[in-house]
């Protein structure tokens, strides 16, 4: 993905090695993307800088900072959660707080995924991906603060039909396993896992529903009641 303008990024992580690593990734990318601020806490961000995208580890203070992330999202900031932790629950909390993407630090393709997520989020001018309307970036953030969950969408003709293998692959991967771990658990190749996930995304796309990244696929699958609570 090649942006048509310069994309500015601010990164929040309480580990200097992570901040240095992300800076090296972005500095080494040939596209017009630049880090303009880094901080070891959300409160440490320079309020005078208005970065296009905020990359935040939600556990910068040892406890998840989803309430602060929700406030930033409500103020119109576009956020990518970059987390050491995995699991559908954490991805759901990030989604409800208003994050536009969720990337795992330990992914074998973490560098590429993070940079691509930043560029995709910066290029997304359609509003909140959690289901809110354009101009309402808070989505269902208040539901998470109250311990609630978004209501599943009613069944409709726009609900795709999946094979058992596609369903199992989605459930394992969206449950926090890597593609390699899913492949081992199912006794198939990682390439086949990628194919099943690609088919699931394509089926949602044909139904007019965005499932182009992990958090979007999780959202749609959960709305269809395909995931265990």
Report on this model:
Strands 2-1-3-4-5 form a 5-stranded parallel β-sheet, with helices on both faces. β3, α2 and β4 form a beta-alpha-beta unit. About 14% of the residues have low confidence. It is built from 9 helices and 5 strands, in the order βαββαβαβαααααα. The protein is of the alpha/beta class and 229 residues long. Helix content is 42%, strand content 12%. It is globular.
Give me the secondary-structure category. Answer: alpha/beta
- The general outline is globular
The span between the termini is: 34 Å
Rg, Å, rounded: 17 Å
- Bin the strand percentage: 5-15%
The number of strands is 5
Query: Unreliable runs, pLDDT <50, ≥5 residues?
Result: 125-156
Order of helices and strands: EHEEHEHEHHHHHH
Number of helices: 9
Oligomeric status: single chain
Largest sheet: 5 strands, parallel
Helix content: 40-55%
Keywords:
5-stranded parallel beta sheet, 12% strand, alpha/beta, 9 helices, globular, 229 residues, 5 strands
Question: How would you concisely characterize the structure shown here?
Answer:
With 229 residues, this protein is an alpha/beta fold. The protein has helices at 16-27, 66-74, 88-97, 110-123, 141-145, 164-174, 179-186, 190-206, 214-223, and strands spanning 7-12, 33-39, 53-56, 78-83, 101-104. The protein has a five-stranded parallel β-sheet with strand order 2-1-3-4-5, sandwiched between helices.
